[in-house]
Amino acid sequence: MAASTALGGSGGRGPHGPWRNWAGNVTARPARTVAPATTGELAAAVRAATADGLTVKAAGTGHSFTPVAATDGLLIRPERLAGVRKVDRAAGTVTVAAGTPLKLLNETLAAHGLSLTNMGDIMEQTASGAAATGTHGTGRDSASVAAQITGLQLVTADGSVLNCSAEEHPDVFASARLGLGALGVITELTFAVEPEFLLTAREEPMGFDEVTDRFEELVAENEHFEFYWFPHTGSCNTKRNNRSQGPAAPPGRISAWVEDELLSNGVFQAACTMGRAVPAAIPGIAKISSRALSARTYTDIPYKVFTSPRRVRFVEMEYALPREAAVGALRELKALVERSDFRVSFPVEVRTAPADDIPLSTASGRDTAYLAVHMYRGTPHQAYFAATERIMTAHGGRPHWGKLHTRDAGYLADVYPRFGEFTAVRDRLDPERRFANNYLRRVLGD
């Protein structure tokens, strides 16, 4: 259940009202809001904000749970800075405006017979926000959105426009692929793409002990493996996605609606609402829900396999751990839930990613496993999340930048070997902290 923003979202109420994120737990009241349609318009807005002493943040679809996009200065909205600008089949790249929704990007790629290699499980986010906060899927060999970027265009604090790649401004490119909006405002992104392929998804219930005992085997044998553990039970649901020669065999319209809408959204919404009203009922509901799971297999183009609709609103914490620590940490979490009074209606999600070379990537320099915990919106989550966080930080965990956590720059500098590399680029590009806010001051320092 990925979360990201462009850094934040179009969850506000019009250009002059407060801005709110998707989960409704973050509100901002910017002094000024603009929706530029071009890089030139955006650069002019940044220059004007600088002249007036305003801070600047760009917002996307609001899927971050942290206030990473919150500002009381200039808020840049994404809706007009959108669209696919260039498809280069020979180079295997696509260039998009920063505010382009991933849904539009994927539909356009499919129309050209192309695909991203991997992505997260929702596609409402903007392309730049998904990258900037570290949105990732699960993968043995590929994972994050940012790792698929080959070039970007960045407006810096003085209104300059930098075109960045491995060859041009390589130090800025290395950091800005996943930049938290701290280095400037991205206006354009170029992604590596490949000819469209088919994925066969195999979804299957599995016991907690079996999936944890076989975790390394399941990761090694599948291109994309993930599983969900249902708290208060010994049950999990696994998903294995692997490339297929076809033919395409998508879920039938009725069965897809039953699985993805009725059960995953409609019935789940009702169960969460009941659990919020009567917390004592949650363990029983969880046991019934986990027993209702059934196996299914289908084959389709990638984005239709990777993504699914998420209509039940929640808050989330996710930590990236060294992969070898994941099973132990999950077992500690299960023991915690069993001995506590916590009532958890949302499953715990486990995914993986290979090491990458992006300074602030949660997978920077190490093979990674992700453990994500969720609570239904409006349900007290603080104690459960705090106890979970203690387990994760004991294993050197790195919090997802767009999901709830309490870590600060002192902790993060210890778990990110290239943290200083990123902050040095920030000091050079934004010495006056034009793109800062309270969240960035906490996680990056001031």
Write the layout of secondary structure elements.
Elements: E1 19-20, E2 27-28, E3 32-34, H1 39-51, E4 56-58, E5 74-76, E6 84-88, E7 93-97, H2 102-111, E8 114-115, H3 127-132, E9 149-155, E10 161-165, H4 170-176, E11 185-192, E12 194-195, E13 198-207, H5 208-213, H6 215-221, E14 224-229, E15 235-244, H7 253-277, H8 282-291, E16 296-300, H9 302-306, E17 314-322, H10 326-339, E18 348-353, E19 368-376, H11 382-394, E20 398-399, H12 409-415, H13 419-429, H14 438-444
Parallel strand pairs: 3-5, 4-5
Antiparallel strand pairs: 1-2, 6-7, 7-11, 8-12, 9-10, 9-11, 13-15, 13-16, 14-15, 14-18, 17-19, 17-20, 18-19
Helix pairs in contact: 10-11, 12-14
Shape: globular
Strand order of the largest sheet: 16-13-15-14-18-19-17-20
**Major sheet, described briefly?**
8 strands, antiparallel
Nearest-integer average pLDDT: 91
Compute the number of helices: 14
User: What percent of the residues sit in helical stretches (DSSP H or I)?
Assistant: 25-40%
Descriptive notes:
- The structure is a single chain.
- The protein has about 450 residues and is α+β, with helices and mostly antiparallel strands.
- Helices cover about 30% and strands about 25% of the residues.
- It is built from 14 helices and 20 strands.
- It has an eight-stranded antiparallel β-sheet with strand order 16-13-15-14-18-19-17-20, sandwiched between helices.
- Strand 1 (about 20) and strand 2 form a beta hairpin.
- Helix 10 packs antiparallel against helix 11.
